[in-house]
Amino acid sequence: MKNERLKLNPIDIVIYTIFIGLTLIDFIFSINQDKDIFVCITFIIIGISSIIFFITDRGGVTVDKIIYIFMYLFCYYAPYHQYLDNYIIHPNSPFSESEFLFANIIILIFLFLYTFSKRLILKKVQVKKIKYDERISINELSLSILTIISIVCLIILYKSKLLFSTNENIENSDGIYITMVRMARFFPVASLLIYIFANKEKLVNARKINKKIFIVVIALINLIIYFPLNGTVSRYLLFGTYIMIFFALSNKLKYKSLILVVASIGFYVIFPAFNFFKNHTIFELSEFRLGGFSTNYIDYDAYQVLMLSVRYAKSHGVLYGANILSGILCIVPRSIFTKKLYPSGQIVAEYFNFKFLNISCPLFAEFYIAGGVIAIIFGTILFSLINKIIENKMMNNNILFKGIYTITLGMMFIFMRGAFLPTMSMYLCLIIVYIVVYYICTPFKKKEVIKE
């Protein structure tokens, strides 16, 4: 992102002060709860460090800001209150104080190593700017093609009964069918992103009426597919999709602290309430109730899965990177890649005989299962390097790389929560669809502007 000078306006200062103040108050109230002081202190360090790193991150909505929001909500607030409440999400023996402390150390290693490697060690890593002789130009024909394909995708989803069902867990399935579903769901979003980016650079060569028709139709299709109350799309994917669209429209925020406020309200209030739509349809809306501030349910299991992953690695042994390799080669069929593993969350759940296998596995837990603390160190540095490269390429102002960065931004929360294999599969599907949409538009070079 652009290295702008860090500026904080009064509203941002007030909001950040409130968040840090509430974090410190959390610690004060926990002193009298007969809890291990070192565990409490490390939790508070995670919370305050996440806020400070969020504040010092330049730019508007960035990949790093999404990571720091995840660290604050899922590695400090939710697990800290679960710890204070002695709440165990998955059926297992209670966690010891030493397990909480070790998990916090792992998180702190990831948090500080990612931040400092990206900001200091990788500060001078720049990607050579490339001159592109071909730039897309969206004309009326390409608008028509994108509109028709998007309508076909909507029809396919409707015929497959994936618009108004409650089968959210289909996102974590495997195989060709779910790959096609993901592509059908994302094609209208990719079309909208391409249009927004091209329109900003005045590369849309069509009459105003046709532009308006395209925007209205594509916006309606996306609203239907990604309507929050349908219950068919993972709430994390919904969150990511809206982040993508917001970033494409405008990444300049006057009050950057509002990202943290909106995310907190969303995950503390709206997400618990939207559990309703896992088992109900939109037609049962009269029974809907807003959620509270409790994080004692399965959506906030990432931290406890980290502790389970440490247990798994200690008793079973590490996977020597097989889980990461399986994620990278996610598009290779199991019939070819016979040693391809299942998602790490599922592996851990099966090992501990859980009835429910579709659990998360945060990125740092994936690294630990892959090769212990050493894998966390090397994996975190590599992760920061990849994000830096994608970020720098986006600065080339090329629409293809802008789209890839936007998708990375929207998927980052899901990446951080895991598991890696299904997330990587979903991520590659979205990238492939975006590239297809991009190359649908590339043959149409801008030769003349249509006069109104």
What features would you describe in this structure?
There is one protein chain. This protein has 452 residues and is mainly alpha-helical. The protein has a domain at 10-121. Helix content is 64%, strand content 1%. It contains 15 helices and two strands. The chain has helices at 10-30, 37-56, 63-85, 97-121, 140-159, 176-200, 208-225, 235-249, 257-274, 302-316, 322-328, 344-351, 363-394, 399-417, 420-441; strands at residues 138-139, 204-205. The two termini are 37 Å apart. Mean pLDDT is 82; it is low at 166-172 and 446-452.
Quick take:
With 452 residues, the chain is mainly α. It contains 15 helices and two strands.
Q: Keyphrases for this structure?
A:
disordered C terminus, two-stranded parallel sheet, single chain, 1% strand, 452 residues, mainly alpha
Shape, principal axes of CA atoms: globular
Give, in spatial order, the strands making up the sheet with the most strands: 1-2
Class by alpha and beta content: mainly alpha
| Helix segment tally | 15
Cα Rg? 22 Å
Contiguous low-pLDDT stretches (5 residues minimum) are 166-172, 446-452
| Strand runs, count | 2
Helix content: 55-70%
Outline the biggest β-sheet: 2 strands, parallel
| Helix and strand run | HHHHEHHEHHHHHHHHH
Distance linking N and C termini: 37 Å
